[in-house]
């Protein structure tokens, strides 16, 4: 699995719509609205490097309102969290 972190600058008036359109793209697992010099961070998870180009260059960059992107390819993951387990609430011994 290839993970790419994509920094997205967007038309300020369309950030929510841009985020929703990017999140709906195949290969995009998550989109975050963030503070700082960029507007959104998209996590792209695909099987091959060529698929990163397909998602980012062919589709994400063409979403109306995207003004620029910067893509970073992850080399190695140092932690893998099971978020569902981390946030689940259960009663032990019930």
Automatic annotation (TrEMBL):
Q: Which SUPFAM superfamilies match?
A: Dimeric alpha+beta barrel
Entry's InterPro entries? Answer: Dimeric_a/b-barrel, Tscrpt_reg_AsnC/Lrp_C
**GO molecular function per UniProt:** sequence-specific DNA binding
Listed GO biological process terms:
response to amino acid
Q: Which residues belong to any copy of the Transcription regulator AsnC/Lrp ligand binding domain?
A: 8-76
Q: Which Gene3D superfamilies match?
A: 3.30.70.920
Can you list the GO cellular component terms from the UniProt entry?
A: cytosol
Spell out the PANTHER family in the cross-references.
LEUCINE-RESPONSIVE REGULATORY PROTEIN, TRANSCRIPTIONAL REGULATOR AZLB
Name the record gives this protein: AsnC-like helix-turn-helix protein
Native organism: Mumia flava
């Amino acid at each position: 699995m290839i993970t790419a972190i994509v920094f997205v600058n967007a038309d300020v008036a369309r950030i929510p719509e841009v985020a929703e359109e990017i999140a709906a793209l195949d290969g995009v697992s998550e989109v975050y609205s963030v503070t700082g010099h960029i507007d959104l961070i998209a996590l792209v998870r695909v099987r091959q490097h060529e698929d990163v180009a397909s998602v980012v260059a062919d589709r994400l960059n063409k979403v109306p309102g995207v003004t620029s992107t910067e893509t970073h390819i992850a080399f190695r993951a140092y932690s893998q969290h099971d978020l569902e387990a981390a946030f689940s609430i259960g009663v032990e011994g019930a």
